Amino acid sequence: xxxxxxxxxxxxxxxxxxxxxxxxxxxxxxxxxxxxxxxxxxxxxxxxxxxxxxxxxxxxxxxxxxxxxxxxxxxxxxxxxxxxxxxxxxxxxxxxxxxxxxxxxxxxxxxxxxxxxxxxxxxxxxxxxxxxxxxxxxxxxxxxxxxxxxxxxxxxxxxxxxxxxxxxxxxxxxxxxxxxxxxxxxxxxxxxxxxxxxxxxxxxxxxxxxxxxxxxxxxxxxxxxxxxxxx
Length: 231
What we know:
It is built from 8 helices and 10 strands.
């Protein structure tokens, strides 16, 4: 079956929360979703800091009035339909575990990459559960969890002069319905496609490949992403 954007569900009415929305990746995704007209809630441990980040994003080119606001993580989790986890790896487990109750019944999209860095560059870390998203799924038994947006360049997301981001978002999940929902959110960003890439057990190599992309970007001074052929 070929990729067909016309079959994607309408997600325009969904509220997207970004846990870690004050970091580079979270802010970039928030900007792109908001620029596409999606209602976005910026989450942070500090509601004040979240509000400041939301105001900065709201002032960027192309963002409609009133679509971006900020709040603390707990409130964002409760008020959102879809919640993106975009926190640093070293705080991933604690942040996710603390939100298990407000995230119950919600769609949770984990884009965290467990990476280490040394003088030889980035490398994938071993995660006892198998991957960051599997750790999230174990901590959120009542949520609908998937991995996606692992390979999107934060500088490209944040650059107002970039109109299209030509890459594929690899989606790993046990819940096939999420592929359509998350794929439709990806499609809110011009040039982007959401592609099913297997069950959660396959997410570890998706997360780990980010280390290769960082190496590519450093060598070629680029913002490389993934594009799947023959779809």
